Amino acid sequence: MSNLRIGVPSKGRLSELAADLLKQAGLNFRRQERSLFARVGEMPVDITFLRTDDIPVLCAEGAIDMGITGSDLVAEAGVDVLTRLPLGIGKCKLALCVPNDSPIDDARQLAGKRVATSFPNVTRRYLTEHKANAHLVNLGGSVEIMITLGVADAIVDLVETGSTLAANRLRVLAEIGRYESVVIQNKSRREGELADRVVRRLEGVVIARSWSLLEYNILRTKLAEAEKITPGFNSPTVNSLEDPAWCAIRVMVRRGEVIDVMERLEALGAHAILETQINNCRL
């Protein structure tokens, strides 16, 4: 293997997100129908399409140099890999859940009980830490209905919004871990310089998704107040306008704060407030 080999999910939502992320970072490739491999056009990088839960193991074994997968799957596989970059997508938590009317209020009370999960290794480690010798029911999916079916007394499953728990009359007894999609790397760091370059490119896209570029006009007499609202990443860019009483501001604002910031600027007297999406950046 002379090229850097990156494993990405072959199907599913993360497959689409990973492909978009790579292409936005300049790693352009075309996948032929049902093909397991693709070549990046302008870099010595090969893309390998794999099952998402196989990626941590194959990365640890050196079959691929890097991979995009869920940190929950890395934890479940129990493999020794480098986590190079959290991607800020696919965020969820792994939780131990019991029925709303269950008398169980501590993990230690699960000794002798049945716990259904698709994360047996993580669950086993957690129960061992809490000295609860429970019987694990290992399943591939639909874990949340196992209590209703009489298969389990508790479950360990991924929770995003909590609506599925509410629909099945379950409550969270304990949170085992928080996870998201990540970029991982084999510890041998083969083609390390190229791998670092790829990570830096991906990082530029991930950071850009957290920020917006805001532009607005403000009276110079109110510039100091405006800069308190929009201090920017380092500091805002201030340009003069033809009317010397006014200036134009260009500044980065965290995307989740944009609406509130725009309202505060408008109340201050700012005009022509514009938000522009940032596709890539280096900070």
Short overview:
With 283 residues, this protein is an alpha/beta fold. The chain contains 8 helices and 15 strands.
Distance between the termini: 33 Å
Major sheet: order of its strands? 2-3-1-4-11-5
Computed CA radius of gyration, to the nearest angstrom? 24 Å
Shape verdict? flat
Relative strand content: 25-35%
Helix percent band: 25-40%
Secondary-structure element series: EHEEHEHEEEHEEHEEHEHEEHE
Number of helices: 8
> In this structure, how is the largest beta sheet organized?
6 strands, mixed
Indicate the structural class.
alpha/beta
Overall mean confidence score, pLDDT: 93
Low-confidence stretches: none
Number of strands: 15
List the helices and strands and how they pair.
Blueprint: E1 4-9, H1 13-24, E2 37-39, E3 45-50, H2 55-61, E4 66-70, H3 71-77, E5 82-86, E6 92-99, E7 114-117, H4 120-129, E8 135-138, E9 154-159, H5 163-167, E10 170-179, E11 181-185, H6 192-208, E12 211-219, H7 223-229, E13 237-240, E14 246-254, H8 258-268, E15 271-277
Parallel strand pairs: 1-3, 1-4, 7-8, 7-9
Antiparallel strand pairs: 2-3, 4-11, 5-11, 6-9, 6-10, 12-14, 12-15, 13-14
